[in-house]
């Protein structure tokens, strides 16, 4: 039942294995090697890294390419998962989010409790999402085929992909702003490039954006193994600089002059602080809701589910708490050192105003933002868009569609517009909750952790996941029903307040939880009322059983003809 796990990790965007689907043209790597030729030789000749999913002869080419097929090998360790979360947490956005909780009027211990509770919830949910992909070796959009249907899975894939494209542009723009600071400090003549602007962005802004756009594309284009190496390095690098920054600021301020209580305004009573703490917890969960939904894109590479769980524990509660403490120390020290509270790390190193600090700090936080952008907003649409048309859109092509789309959106224009963010990303973001609830309900409650891997790659009407013309109508109805409520909770309160009706904007903080809970409950109710998902036997050799402790990718060598 299990695949071996003793060879290098299997990056997407790599040559197809020897078996190709019927009707598909065989790529060069699918040709049998000459006697004495090693697989490494063929891969190196193609200039591409080793590995891919294995495609069975029964897999339909309309649903299959080597990036979406079940992995042959899974070798990511708990450190690789830990490093993934370091890249996700160690960003300007993560820094500002942790520091912003104090602006809610909470005491230090209350902020700490909110951070810990919020990140533990994220850890639990990430473990839930991780399991189906780790056990089957397929990415997020493919595992959804078992729940939404082989064609219906494009619904969650496109929604998640569009969200990622939008935020990919925003994160690249924020990193470009940091790079602008370096240019202005070391090349004073670049000041002349700030005016005029083209499509709302200055010439210097375009230069910085282009540099980072190309750098991210280069890392992505080299495949998942290169991305793994990058995030293995980027996360710890940010820690080093953060610790150096904290030591410098504390030494300048003196420890006795640092207060860890950054709350502003009058202190809240205990009763009044409860709803504020709940909002802070919801803010932490919402911040991670995007990468949490498609975490299966990464957990599929885990050598075991135990390794993934350990990496999540190290990378979420422990890592997030330590990074938050560093954030609070650095932000607190800015008050005695600079005379004002600075919660943006880029502005902090700019305020130090020494060439070395600006260069080191600027490049570090640029690297951090690139890291989170690749793992959270590049890889997701790469798989999602590839899932729509696997034979036309490879993993690399899907990623580049996202990269080009991020420029077309001109994120620098609408990022400064609160209404644009609220009503555009608010609508898309509110749908993440229902999609999460449906995935969890489908895999754990209705499917009982059993997935027929081969049937996720067949268009045959007799396939278990064909449902009604490729769509599970229960899943589609749940997305619509729960999505309407979730979107309404996200956008209507602000609209009601703006026209003077009633102020219930606090509801928007819980739109993810509303959508998730309603999506879960509605899908379970519909499936029990009118069952669509198949009941599978764990003893079936073609079924991945999530109850097994060992890695449970169905062996692609034991059953070469499929089912």
From TrEMBL:
Membrane topology: Multi-pass membrane protein
Primary localization: membrane
Chain intervals for the UniProt region annotation (Disordered): 1-38
Residue ranges, compositional bias (Low complexity): 21-33
Keywords of the record: Membrane, Transmembrane, Transmembrane helix
Location within or outside the cell: Membrane
UniProt record similarity statement: Belongs to the purine-cytosine permease (2.A.39) family.
Protein name, as recorded: NCS1 family nucleobase:cation symporter-1
Species assigned in the record: Cellulomonas wangleii
Lineage: Bacteria, Bacillati, Actinomycetota, Actinomycetes, Micrococcales
